Amino acid sequence: MKYSICSTVYNAAPRLRASLDSILQYINPEEFEIVVVDSKSKDGTLEILKEYANKFPNFKIIVRKCTRGKGRQIAFENSQGEYIIPVDLDTIYLPPWWELIKAYESWEGKDKYALQAIYSGIYPRHLLEKVGGWRDLQYAEDFDLWWRLIEIDSLKIYPLVTGKNWKIKERESIHIKNILHIVYRKYLDERDRFIVRSEFNLGARLREIKMWSKRYSYYLFWIPLTSLARVAALLKNVERRDADYVRNKWFNNFINMNIKGDIIYSFVAFPQFTTAKGLIKFMDSKWGYGDE
């Protein structure tokens, strides 16, 4: 098996068919398999997955309650492909996704590097095994993996938009009834963010939140919750990374593969850039992208 398309999913029924259809239109069962971990969905997601498994020969379903990071790792461990393609099944994949896969085939960095775009990527199995795959995290499990690959000079980033994603707000408003559950999920997200993105201190994260949150929720909800999450992350003894080092290391691994499609350089936030203008200024000074 050449490629394994791996994903983890929870309560994605409203979007699942459209997402799978957008993937299946390109692939064939001779070269591709699909491995999906369902985190015990309650909205009919599993039934839809079984429906597609009956249509596509190499479609494997695993049911296990897990975090997003653990789910991705379980899918990876149960796959057989030489190359792993992580996808999100609340995303509709666009033609640039398929163009990225084809471009990787002839790329001079194939096998030496994993390649990450927006909403998907391509990872040689041996590189995932080398860094231990995905960790058991609910949030930022993707950046956590990217950074470990960057540290061993094994990841390149092409900020090509490969899909169209639904926002998390939709999932929460439909599927989460209990307010305490919502708060706990937000807490886990913030805690894992501080664990993975240790270049963010509490002040930097709160400034980021203040840009989009309402005034009353910022002071009554986000400040206490984020502060608690920061303390919890510190108890994990996470080594603090220098923000300038992380930022420069990240952008120095950007490449251009000349695939037609939208490019978003700012798809990952950094403490220094609280506005798009600041990012554009940095990119322009380094590569001249601001002239495009």
Automatic annotation (TrEMBL):
GO MF annotations, alphabetized: hexosyltransferase activity
Keyword Nucleus: no
Membrane-traversing stretches: none
InterPro entries listed in its UniProt record: Glyco_trans_2-like (IPR001173), Nucleotide-diphossugar_trans (IPR029044)
Record carries keyword Transferase: yes
Pfam families assigned: Glycos_transf_2 (PF00535)
UniProt keyword terms in alphabetical order: Transferase
Domain Glycosyltransferase 2-like: 4-104
Highest taxon in the source lineage: Archaea
PANTHER family per record: GLYCOSYLTRANSFERASE, UDP-GLCNAC:BETAGAL BETA-1,3-N-ACETYLGLUCOSAMINYLTRANSFERASE-LIKE PROTEIN 1
Name this protein carries in UniProt: Glycosyl transferase family 2
Annotated organism of origin: Aciduliprofundum boonei (strain DSM 19572 / T469)
Taxonomic lineage from the root: Archaea, Methanobacteriati, Thermoplasmatota, DHVE2 group, Candidatus Aciduliprofundum
